[in-house]
Amino acid sequence: MSATTMSTCLLSRGLSGPRRRDSSFPPSSFASPAPHRRLLPASCKMRQRGLRRPQVKKASPDRPPSIVVNGEGEEDGALAESVPSADQEIGSDSEEDDSDRVVIDVENQNADTKEAFNSTATETNLAIISDTGQHLSTIQVEDLMGMIKNAEKNILLLNQARESALKDLTNTLSEKEALQGEINILEMKLAETDARIRVSAREKMHAELLEDQLEKLRSELIQRSGTEQSELSIEKNEQSNYEKQNIQLSAEKPLLYENSTHFLNEELSSLRAENMSLKNDIEALKAELISVKDTDERVMVLEKQRFHLESALKDLESKFSVSQEDVSKLSSLKFEYKDLWEKVENLQLLLDKATKQADQAIVGLQQNQELRKKVDKLEETLEEANVYKVSSEKLQQYNELMQQKIKLLEERLQRSDEEIHSYVQLYQESVKEFQDTLNSLKEESRKRMLDEPVDDMPREFWSQLLLKFDGWLLEKKLSADDAKLLREMVWKRDRGICDAYMTCKDKSEREALATFLRLISAPSSPGLHVVHIAAEMAPVAKVGGLGDVVTGLSKALQKRGHLVEIIIPKYDCMQYDRILDLRALDAVVESYFDGRLYKNKVWVGTIDGLPVYFIEPLHPDKFFWRGQFYGEHDDFKRFSFFSRAALELLLQSGKKPDIIHCHDWQTAFVAPLYWDLYAPKGLNSARICFTCHNFEYQGTAPASELASCGLDVQELNRPDRMQDNSAHDRINPVKGAVVFSNIVTTVSPTYAQEVRTAEGGKGLHSTLNLHSKKFVGILNGIDTDEWNPATDSFLEVQYSSNDLQGKAANKRAIRKQLGLSSANALKPMVGCITRLVPQKGVHLIRHALYRTLELGGQFLLLGSSPVPHIQREFEGIANQFQNHDDIRLILKYDESLSHHIFAASDMLIIPSIFEPCGLTQMIAMRYGSIPIARKTGGLNDSVFDVDDETIPFQFQNGYTFSNADEQGVNTALERAFSHYKNDPQSWQQLVHRVMSIELGWAPSASQYEELYLKSVARARAARQN
Hints:
Blueprint: E1 43-47, H1 76-82, H2 86-90, E2 103-107, H3 111-129, H4 138-227, H5 233-451, H6 459-474, H7 480-492, H8 495-504, H9 509-518, E3 529-533, H10 545-559, E4 563-569, E5 580-593, E6 596-607, E7 610-617, H11 635-652, E8 659-663, H12 670-678, E9 687-692, E10 701-702, H13 713-716, E11 730-731, H14 733-740, E12 743-746, H15 749-754, H16 765-770, E13 775-777, H17 805-818, E14 829-833, H18 842-854, E15 858-862, H19 868-880, E16 887-890, H20 895-904, E17 907-910, H21 920-926, E18 930-934, H22 937-942, E19 959-961, H23 966-982, H24 984-995, H25 1002-1024
Parallel strand pairs: 3-4, 3-8, 4-7, 8-9, 9-12, 12-13, 14-15, 14-17, 15-16, 17-18, 18-19
Antiparallel strand pairs: 1-2, 5-6, 6-7, 10-11
Helix pairs in contact: 4-5, 6-7, 8-9, 10-25, 11-12, 17-20, 18-23
C-alpha cells in the first residue's frame, strides 16, 4: 500500500505568484476589492518530492486541510498563525526522504510590510489614472504574468496530489477488505478451538468421575475381604477366584483410565497451546485492526483533504480565468495608454506651435488694423472726388442698355406669339386623334372582355363553383363528363360561367343546373389539377408547420393558374369559424376497412379561397372525434382509413387529377394504395408527390395492421417496399411513400442532404440514397398575407420596412402588457417562440435566457412542452423570474401574443439541434426581428451571417453558429448585442434589408410547379409510347 504525503495550504482570498524583490510595485497593487474577484498577492515556494508510504498522524477533525496564502483583510495574520506547518500536520520524514514529498511553503508578511505595500498600491493606482501621463510599469505586467504561471503550476501540483490521494485511498480500502477477510477466518478458527476446548473439558471431568468410582470400588473390596474370612472354604475358594478376577479387573481398569487421562491431558495441553497461539494471533490481528481503524481515520483525513483540494482547485481555476481577463484588459489598457500619451504629446506640440502662431497673428492683426484705418481714410477721400464723375457716366450707359433690352423683348414677344399659335393647332389635332383612338380602344376592350377570363372575382367565388359542381356530381345530378367540362371552364375563369352564375344565383337548383349545362363547351385546361391529401391545414387544423405548408403552397399554386383542392379529416376540434360555406353533401362515399365497407360523410367548404373536402368516417370507433389531432393509440388505423377514403372520394367523384400530393406518414398510405388498388380501377391519371416534413416521425407499426386498409401484407412487407429497415416485422409508411411515389421532397435543401446520412436519416438513409434521383429539398415559404406587419390586426401599431416607428411602439406596448421595465427604451429584446422539445435545443434556450440577462437585454419566451420534466423545469424558471424586470416566460401557445413578440423583438433565438425547415426565422425577418440561429437544416438555407464575407451583402440577414453548445450561443448573442449597441444606424439598415427579402411561397411554388410539369410530361410521353 502506498500513499502520497501532501502539504496542505489554506486558500485565503487568492493565489500567490512569484515576486521580484526589486519590483517597484508591490503585489498588493494588483489586488482589487473582493466583489471584483481579483487575485490577491502572496509568495509561494514549491519543491517536488517523490511519493512514498507516509507515517500519518491523526489530523484534527475540526480543522480541514487548507492552503495558507498572504492576502488582504484583518484576519489574514490570525489565520496564518493558527494553522500549523505542513510538517506538523502531516508528519515528517527524514531529510534523506525530502525528495519523496511535495511541500508548499508559504511566506507570510508582517503587518508593517503589508501597510507599506497597500500605500504603495494606492499611490500606483492613482498614478495610473492620473492625467500626468506617466507610463505604465512593465514590471507590474511581468509580476502578474509570473503570478499566473505560478497559479498554473499550483493547479498542476494540486491535481497530481489529488490523483495520488485517490490512488492511496483505493489501495487502503482494498487492503482493509483483505484484512477484514483474514480477521473473519481467524474468528472462525477461534470459535472452533473454543468448541474443542469445551469438549476436552467435559471429557476431563468425565475421567475424574471414573477415577472417583474406581477408588470407591477399591475400598469396598478391601472391606469385603476382611469380613468374609469365616465362611466356608468353598466360599473362600470361590471368593479367592472372585478376588483374583476383581484384582485383575482392578489392575486393568486403572491402567485404562490412566492411559485415557494421559491422552486427554496431552490433547488438552496441545489445545491450550494452540489456544494461546490463537489468542496471540487475535491480539496481533486486533493490533492490526486498530492500525486499520487508524488507517480509516487517515482515509477520512485524506478524503477531507481531497474535498478541500477540489474546492481550492475550483477557486484557483476561477481566479485564473479572472486573472487572464485582467491581463488582457491590462494589456489593452497599456496600449491605449501609450496611444493616448503619444496623442497628448502631439497635441502639446501642436498647442505650442499654435500658441506661437497666435502671438504672431495678434501682432500682425494689430498692424493690419492700423493700416486699415489709414486705407479707410484714403478711400473716403477718393470716393468724394469721384462721385460726380462716375454718376454722369453710369446714367448714360444705363439708358443705352435699356433701349437694347426693349428691342430684344419686342422681338421675343413676337416669336412667342407665333409659337403659341402653332402649339394650339397641334394640340387641337392631337385631341381629335386621341379621341378617335380612345373610341377604338373602348370598342376593342368591349369585344375582348367577352373572350378573356375574369380576374376581378375572389378565389372564394371560383372555389364555391367547383364545390357546387362536385356536389351535383356526387348527388348524381350531373354526369362526370359534364362536371369535367364545367370544372375546366372554372379553371379558365370563363366570363360566360361567371355571368351564368350571376343570372341564376336567385333561381332554383334545377334552373341553375340547366343554365350551366347550356354553357358546356370543350375548352382546354390552362393548368394542372392538384389534390393535396393531408392531416393538417392552417388555420383550421394546425399542429406544426405541415398545416402552414399545405395552405401556403396551395394558395401560391392557385395564383399561378392551377386548380388546387385539399382533402383533410373532419376533426371535432377544428376551428370551424374559419371555414366558409361549410355544408354536407347529400351523398355518402363507401370505403373498405377491416374486411367490410364503411360509409363516409363528405363536407365541403372554403378556407382562404381554397376548396376543401372534409371526410367524416361513420365508423363505430369515431376516428376523428377524439378531441385532438394526433397522439391516439390507434393513429395508424385512423389515418390509413382516411387515406383510402380520400382516394375513394376521388374515384367516385370522377376526378382526374394530374398530381396527388400527400404529406408525412399520416397520408403516406396514399402512394401504395393508389398504385396497388386504385390505378387498376381507373383512377390512373395522377402522378404521386410525397413530402416528408420531418423524418423523425415515420409511423411504424406491426406489419399485420397494414391489412386493415386492404393492402397485401406479404407483398409489401419486403425490404424493397414497406418493410422497416430496422425491424423486419414492422411496416414503415414513410418508406412505402418514398418507394411508391413519383416525386419525393422534403422541406429544405440542407435537410435533404442531412437525411441521406446515417445520423440524420433515422434509419431511412439507405432508402433515400437508393431513390435519390427523385428526392429533392425545396425550402418552404411563409404566408405573407397572414404574416404582414403592415396589415396585422393583432399589432398595436402596423409598420413596414420603410417606416419602422411602429416597431418601437409595439416594443413599448408589450413591455407594458407583460410588466417589463421601460426605463431603457433602447435595451435590446430577445424573443423565442417554440415548442420546448429536445429537437429545439431546450438547454441552449435556457442558457440564452441567462446570457441575455448578463448582456443587459430582455428575454421573452412563448411556448410549451409535451415532455413533463421539461415543462416542470421551465415552470420553475418562470416562477423564479415572475416579477423580474427583464424576463418573462409564457408557457403556452398564444396566437395573438406570438404576433406581438415577433413585432417587438429586436432578435429571435432559434438554437435547434436539427430543423427540417423552420418558419420562425422567416416570420421573424418579415417583422424585422434579426434571427440568431444554428446552422442546420432549413435554418442554414435561410439565415446567413452578417459577418460572413463569403455571403453577398444583400443576403446577409442574421447571426449563426455551428456547434450546439453554450459557447456557440454566447458568440452569436455577443456579436448581435455589440452590433445593436455600438452601431444603431447599421442595425436599422439590417432590419430594413431583412424585411425586404422575398419570404413568400412564390419561389417554392415555382419549383414545385416545375417538378409537377416534368413528372406529368414524362407520364404522358410514356402513355403515348
